[in-house]
Design goal:
The chain is an alpha/beta fold. It has a single domain (25-169), classed as DNA polymerase III subunit chi (Rossmann fold, 3-Layer(aba) Sandwich). It has three helices and seven strands, in the order βαβαββββαβ. The longest helix is centred in the first third of the chain and has 17 residues, at 39-55. The radius of gyration is 15 Å and the shape is globular.
């Protein structure tokens, strides 16, 4: 398993080509398991992933479960970099259109609308195999790790073997 540095998150950009030279679909899916056990560490890591994908020109969304969590991410994205800001909006429901490059979603994402999808929610979107790139971020908390295991099993059932970046193994 490959590990990542929290200050420099692993690539969420273009998928890697496999040995045959064709795109390897499993290189589009990543699990990030943090050594820290706090929601704040998870939010910060997700924000770094957002920034990296956005800097690469992707439309990026972060899927979360509650308005409180969305507001925490909103504050973090506004204050993430002292030199710039990441243009984003909170999307409370499927009827709301996000015109910004980054969205914080409280509803399932539509695969055609986003190049990079970051999952912080307890539910993996039903169409997870249709996303161009998908990153799931879990902090070292038993409940969140159980959710991550469930997501991992769901992806495997779809024929996807995600790459795991486990910071706990350092």
């Amino acid at each position: 398993m490959q590990e990542s540095n929290p200050a420099n998150p692993p690539e969420t950009g273009s998928p890697a080509a496999g040995p045959s030279g064709k795109e390897d679909p499993n290189q589009r899916y990543w699990f990030h398991i943090l050594a820290q056990n706090t929601p704040a560490a998870r939010n910060l890591h997700a924000t770094r992933l957002v920034d990296k994908a956005w800097q690469q020109g992707d439309r990026v969304c972060v899927v979360c479960d509650t308005m409180q969590h969305a507001e925490e991410l909103d504050d973090l994205l506004w204050n993430f970099s002292p030199d710039a800001f990441i243009p984003h909006s909170v999307v409370p429901d499927s009827a709301t259109t996000c015109t910004d490059s980054v969205g914080i979603l409280l509803c399932p994402p539509v695969a055609e609308d986003w190049e990079t999808v970051i999952i912080l929610s307890a539910t993996l979107p039903a169409n997870a195999d249709r996303f161009k790139r998908l990153a799931l971020v879990a902090h070292n908390d038993p409940n969140v790790l159980n959710q991550a295991r469930s997501h991992f099993k769901q992806l495997r059932a779809l024929g996807i073997e995600p790459r795991v970046h486990d910071q706990r193994k350092r």
